[in-house]
Write a structure and sequence with these properties.
Layout lengths: L2 H10 L3 H12 L1 H13 L6 H6 L6 H4 L2 H11 L3 H28 L7
């Protein structure tokens, strides 16, 4: 953000909140939108490694997330077609969320990723 914008806002009498609202946020809006899109794209991933390390039959009922559920039923029980469908559903939901946020980004005047 150019310092001249802040200097001219100070001369015009803008306080700190007004400078942040009218100069800083519009200047970094594209970065905010891009980070929002990237974060929403990975919202369905719950960190399989961290959960799997502390995973035991005693905590299956409260510690199960989609990734560990897919692993438990697919790899250990051999229900490959069922867990493939669950994984595909998870990815379709994640892609749908990505499309929604991308549409919102385009409505806000940004490029988006698609």
């Amino acid at each position: 953000v150019h310092q001249e914008l802040y200097e001219s806002a100070i001369i015009d009498g803008a306080n700190r909140l007004q400078r942040a609202w009218y100069i800083t946020l519009p200047s970094i809006k594209s970065v905010i939108v891009l980070l929002l899109i990237l974060d929403v794209a990975g919202i369905m991933n719950a960190g399989f490694d961290q959960i799997f390390n502390l995973y035991s039959p005693m905590v299956f009922s409260v510690g199960d997330v989609l990734d560990t559920y897919i692993y438990r039923h697919g790899v250990t029980s051999g229900q490959f077609s069922y867990t493939t469908a669950v994984g595909l559903f998870k990815n379709v939901v994640s892609f749908g969320l990505l499309l929604i946020v991308n549409f919102i980004a385009k409505r806000a005047g940004e490029e988006g990723v698609l």
